[in-house]
Task: inverse folding
């Protein structure tokens, strides 16, 4: 099992090393570390969590030319796994994304672990840094008061409609703490959420020239 994880890790690192939207290898590595931590605390299947953490972005439309092509790539990486493990990993990576917040809850403990690990990397100091990198990669502004945060979004609208980096905090990031699945994930999220809120308070003060 360790050999399989190592081989997948080498492949994913090579593929995502220079990715420029904040979904690079270092994001994967951080998610992997958090998934291991949470899996151990929550008694989840560590192997499934590790593999899913490593491949979770490969079929995402931010990375792949299409979801279909990305899933085919993942399926090839999962060939050494038992059929049931392949199906489990594929279920995790196809159901864990935020995509506007309209998704059904994930089904298994391992999916909850990897989803929490991924969401933790979207909040706190790292989450702030990734937000601005991602906005820049899309050509979005830092902030425009005339563009209001969207309240209800389809997956397509979430991906493609105009927004701003600051709006992303209200559209997604500030919601993640209350969407955590595990006690371990929630404990970590609470501190990171507080950091987001503090950053936004300071940002708006400076924007208005009151600080």
Result:
């Amino acid at each position: 099992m360790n050999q399989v994880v190592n081989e997948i890790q080498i492949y994913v690192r090579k593929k995502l090393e220079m990715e420029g939207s904040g979904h690079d290898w270092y994001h994967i590595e951080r998610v992997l570390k958090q998934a291991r931590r949470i899996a151990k605390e929550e008694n989840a299947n560590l192997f499934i969590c590790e593999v899913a953490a490593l491949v979770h972005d490969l079929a995402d439309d931010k990375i792949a030319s299409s979801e279909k092509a990305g899933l085919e790539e993942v399926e090839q990486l999962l060939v050494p796994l038992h059929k049931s493990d392949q199906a489990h990993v594929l279920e995790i990576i196809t159901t864990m994304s935020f995509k506007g917040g309209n998704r059904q809850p994930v089904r298994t403990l391992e999916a909850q672990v990897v989803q929490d690990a991924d969401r933790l990397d979207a909040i706190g100091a790292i989450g702030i840094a990734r937000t601005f990198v991602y906005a820049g990669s899309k050509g979005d502004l830092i902030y425009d008061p005339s563009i209001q945060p969207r309240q209800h979004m389809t997956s397509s609208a979430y991906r493609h409609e105009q927004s701003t980096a600051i709006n992303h905090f209200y559209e997604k990031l500030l919601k993640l703490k209350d969407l955590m699945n595990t006690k371990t994930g929630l404990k970590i999220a609470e501190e990171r959420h507080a950091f987001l809120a503090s950053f936004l308070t300071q940002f708006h003060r400076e924007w208005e020239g009151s600080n």
Notes: The mean pLDDT is 93. DSSP finds ten helices and no strands in the chain. The chain has one domain: 2-208. The CA atoms of residues 123 and 192 lie 6 Å apart.
